[in-house]
Design a protein that fits this description.
There is one protein chain. By secondary structure, the protein is of the alpha/beta class. Among the domains are: 7-124, OB fold (Dihydrolipoamide Acetyltransferase, E2P) (Beta Barrel), CATH 2.40.50; 142-275, Rossmann fold, CATH 3.40.50.261. Helices cover 51% and strands 19% of the residues. It contains nine helices and ten strands. The strands form two sheets. Strands 1-2-3-5-4 form a five-stranded mixed beta barrel. The protein has a five-stranded parallel β-sheet with strand order 7-6-8-9-10. A hairpin with a 2-residue loop joins strand 1 and strand 2. Helix 6 (192-204) packs parallel to helix 7 (230-237). The longest helix is centred in the last third of the chain and has 133 residues, at 277-409. The N and C termini lie far apart (243 Å). 22% of the residues are buried.
């Protein structure tokens, strides 16, 4: 294969004899693959992952452990296949190995698909999920409330990723004054688990961080599997700082997203964890106006309440005072009347006694007058009788004297 494109060495002065273009290398690889009949097996077994459809063709990856190969079921072959592949299916795939030279990628051109059960990884996923659920890490009641306005956001992601750029841009678009502390972590590969856990723990220990965001962009399902690992989920669930997961695309679901306090669909949606500054300023202005109005209304209401209460207290006090005065007056009047009645009774009794005494005196006087009258009458009568007797005696004497004179003088 030497000197396939030897002219390139002269042009670039590479001091080498064996120089080829990418097209030449890919053509060589394609010829090797096509010449190897033993690479075409009856079936290839693996888990169906990252299933999609385009122009009537079905694309998916066949995954086993850490290895994967891209598969294509062309539209004209779909009706001839035993079944169509589905996510989380473990399948045995028959097909022809093909090397796509323009991209330098190897694919399996599928002719048939046989379902042989639930995918190996879906079983692992369900086991992990059940374990987390048994320990209460998926329960909504243990999740923390996100702060209304975090001043510092901790970001765990790959420092040179589009996810980091999208998340930072989205957060600052909403609220430019928010500080962002980036903790670099590989988001796939053998070092991803340890770096992600270390990044989260480091930010959780930082007292200035108000909220943590763990994020990465979309990718094949197998590249997101680190976010279904139970050690990472336990670290996320154990943070004292509220934590948000924004992993993959809208349809991607991970256990890390389920144990996090909040989940956003994509790295760009991380901007939703902070309020929009313009909206907050408008709300602040509105609240300020409402506060002023509410304060004035409250003061007026309270003053009116105080006035009513004062009127009620005054009325109650006056009523009570008047009632007390009325009671006192009634009591005093009663006592006065009683005193007056007693005095009048005393006077009446005195007058009655006086009248009785006068009556008795008059009766005595009458009796005395009667007695005197009777005595006077008796005396007068006695006097008359005495006088009469004297007159009779005198007449007798005169008569006797006349008789005597007559005798003496013989008249």
């Amino acid at each position: 294969m030497a000197d396939v494109d030897g002219s390139l060495a002269t042009e670039a002065d590479l001091d080498a004899d064996d120089v080829v273009t990418v097209a030449s290398l890919n053509a060589e690889i394609a010829s090797v693959i096509e010449a190897r009949a033993d690479l075409n097996h009856d079936y290839v077994v693996g888990d169906v992952s990252d299933l999609s459809e385009s122009n009537g063709h079905v694309h998916f990856d066949l995954v086993y452990e850490e290895a994967s190969i891209h598969c294509v079921l062309f539209g004209f072959r779909r009706n001839g296949a035993s079944i169509e592949p589905e996510e989380e299916m473990q399948a045995a795939v028959r097909g022809e190995l093909s090397y796509y030279e323009e991209r330098g990628s190897c694919s399996l051109l599928v002719t048939d698909v046989v379902d042989i059960g639930e995918s190996e990884y879906s079983q692992v996923y369900e086991q992990n999920r059940q374990l987390l659920a048994e320990h209460g890490l998926l329960a909504d009641e243990r999740k923390q409330t996100l702060p209304d306005l975090p001043s510092t956001v901790g970001l765990v992601t790959s420092a040179d990723s589009a996810a980091k750029t999208d998340a930072v841009t989205a957060i600052h678009d909403c609220y430019p004054d928010v500080d962002i502390k980036l903790q670099h972590a590989t988001v796939q590969g053998p070092d991803a688990l340890q770096e992600l856990m270390g990044g989260i723990s480091g930010l959780d220990d930082d007292a200035t961080v108000d909220i943590i965001v763990v994020t990465r962009g979309g990718g094949a399902d197998k590249t997101l599997r680190v976010f279904n690992e139970t050690p990472l989920c336990r670290v996320i669930a154990g943070t004292e700082t509220p934590i948000v997961a924004g992993i993959g695309h809208e349809d991607d679901r991970t256990l890390a997203g389920e144990v996090a306090d909040h989940r956003v669909m994509t790295p760009t949606e991380a901007g939703k964890i902070v309020p929009e500054r313009a909206a907050k300023e408008q709300e602040l202005s509105r609240l300020s106006t409402n506060l002023k109005s509410a304060y004035e209304t409250a003061v007026e209401t309270q003053l009116a309440g105080f006035g009513t209460a004062l009127d009620n207290v005054y009325e109650t006090e006056i009523t009570t005072h008047l009632q007390n005065l009325e009671a006192s007056l009634s009591h005093a009047t009663k006592r006065q009347v009683e005193t007056e009645l007693l005095n009048l009774q005393a006077q009446l009794n005195g007058a009655y006694d006086a009248v009785e005494r006068k009556k008795e005196h008059e009766e005595v006087l009458a009796e005395t007058v009667e007695t005197v009258r009777e005595e006077a009458t008796a005396n007068a009568q006695a006097e008359v009788e005495a006088t009469r007797r004297r007159y009779r005696l005198l007449l007798v004497a005169l008569f006797l004297l006349a008789i005597l004179l007559f005798v003496l003088f013989g008249l």
